Amino acid sequence: MRILIAEDDSSLQKMAGRLMTYWGFDFDMVSNGQEAVNYAKMNGCAYDLCLMDIDMPIMDGLEATKIIRHELRYFPIMALTGNLGTKKRYLEIGMDDFLEKPYSIKNLHSKINKLTTKVEKICLVNKKLKLTKETPMNREELQELIELKKKGLTKLKLVGTGTTFVVHRNIQNKISYDIVGEGKELSEFIDRSENEPGRCHLYKTNLHVTKDIFTPEELESAIQIENEIAEKFMQVVDKKIQD
Questions:
Q1: Residue 79, CA distances (Å) to 53, 218, 236 in order
Q2: Model pTM score
Q3: pLDDT tens, 57-67?
């Protein structure tokens, strides 16, 4: 996790830095909006989130957000401010959320977890399966992921195929176990997309997927069975996949 923090108050900088370190997050600290823009450009938007103060010298957080949204690829930005009188404007210029100062540590951590929700990705690298995470393409996709997360679901994207599925939150760990841990040539999972749900067969060699479409009755039964299986993989992370 890498976070860009734009804050001009030195005491708040120190507090935020201590919190990021305690939570195990990498971070860059800047003192005004112009520096925030420069860091975002310099680092190729390699941030999972920006915590943006509004009232800062040289360039305020609103103007910085406008530039970032206009010139750089999307990443979430949350306003941290003591003035929520213009919160509608924050969203209109491209911010994703806001948190009023003074804020509780619990609320800040909760907001960070929500706004850093990502798409699960599967790709082939040198004929090896690799699982990664991808920042949403825009605010609409982020909100979609947040709503899916509330239901215990996520989006799974197969890189190189252009195919995306709605799946159980643990399904990537099951796929890892099947293909890497067990050495199977394919893994099964349920696509829970509203428009065309079905049982998917993912083939290791080329990430090709075939799907058997469910009737509503079949879907309900299959989901119950998969939920029981997928929950067993909550803590399963195959290190081979991360290599």
A1: 6, 45, 35
A2: 0.85
A3: 999 999 999 99
